[in-house]
């Protein structure tokens, strides 16, 4: 998925150190793209999340001009895959 920034330059979601979405701004661009709490980011901008520290993930999300992500939706009960 491609993630857009709001007018403040924010993506509208937070991730934990494992690349799992902790929260999403309701009805923002990330929400509209289908991102939900419990989704697991597998890739950020073509880089595998397992190769990144939490700080590197945040930096990549903050500084990349075009943010793309490969995302696994959570299980039916909302727990991450």
TrEMBL record:
It holds the Pfam family PDZ. Residues 1-76 form the PDZ domain. It comes from the Eukaryota. Signal peptide: none annotated. SUPFAM superfamilies: PDZ domain-like. This is Signal-induced proliferation-associated 1-like protein 1. The gene is SIPA1L1_1.
